Each structure stands twice: as C-alpha cells, then as structure tokens.
C-alpha cells in the first residue's frame, strides 16, 4: 500500500478569491475525485488549526494499492484539472510518498 501525503501553503489571494475560499474549492474538488477515481482507497483532507509560521494550510492524505495506481491517479484528467487550479493558488507544496 502506498500513502501519498501532500501539504500546501496557500497564497493570501489568488484567482480573485481569498485564501479561505481557495482552500474550500480545493478541498471540495479533491473529495469530488473519490467517485471518479476508484483507485483512491482512502482520502483525508485536513485544515491547519495552529496557524504557526511553520504550518502548512491544507493536508491531503491518500492511499493507493501500489505505485501504478498512484501514477494513474496523478495522471487522471480530472486530477490534472484540480492540480492545475492548485498550482495557481498555492505558494508552497510538499509531498511524501511512502510504503505502508
């Protein structure tokens, strides 16, 4: 099983929306992928509650059977749409993929 964790720091404003609005759009868009991409075995999304200088704003945790299904997800046209929007509204992105 592969766990894919992504964390983002959002821009204060982007695409004519506030940070909070963009976080909500990204969260909803990611959850909308669940019925479209059955290769996603688990998805959790969390919003930062501490708001420290070291904090990221939003965390995505997904799990996949293997690296092939993670690659399928990463290259799925609907995921690419979400990723395209995310790139416009975030300042920083960190990723960790690990075997569990």
Number of helices: 3
E-strand count: 6
Main sheet strand line-up: 4-5-1-6
Indicate the mean pLDDT: 98
Radius of gyration, CA atoms, in whole angstroms: 13 Å
Helix proportion: 25-40%
The major pleated sheet works out as:
4 strands, antiparallel
Shape type = globular
- Topology order in helix (H) and strand (E) letters: EEEHEEHHE
Point out poorly predicted stretches: none
Q: In terms of structural class, how would the helical and strand content be classed?
A: alpha+beta
As a percent range, the share of strand residues is 35-45%
* End-to-end Cα distance: 5 Å
Structure description:
The protein has 100 residues and is an alpha+beta fold. The chain is 35% helix and 36% strand. It has helices at 19-31, 67-75, 77-89, and strands at 2-10, 13-14, 17-18, 42-47, 58-64, 90-99. The strands form two sheets. It has a four-stranded antiparallel β-sheet. A two-stranded antiparallel sheet has the order 2-3. A hairpin with a 2-residue loop joins strand 2 (13-14) and strand 3 (17-18). The longest helix is centred in the first third of the chain and has 13 residues, at 19-31. The protein is globular, with a radius of gyration of 13 Å. The N and C termini lie close together (5 Å).
């Amino acid at each position: 099983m592969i766990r894919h964790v992504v964390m983002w720091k959002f821009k204060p404003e982007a695409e004519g929306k506030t940070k909070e609005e963009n976080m909500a759009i990204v969260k909803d868009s990611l959850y909308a992928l669940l019925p479209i991409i059955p290769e996603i075995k688990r998805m959790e999304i969390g919003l930062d509650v501490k708001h420290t200088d070291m904090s990221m704003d939003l965390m995505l945790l997904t799990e996949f059977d293997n690296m092939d299904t993670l690659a399928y997800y990463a290259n799925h046209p609907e995921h690419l749409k979400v990723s395209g929007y995310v790139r416009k509204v975030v300042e920083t992105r960190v990723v960790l993929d690990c075997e569990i």
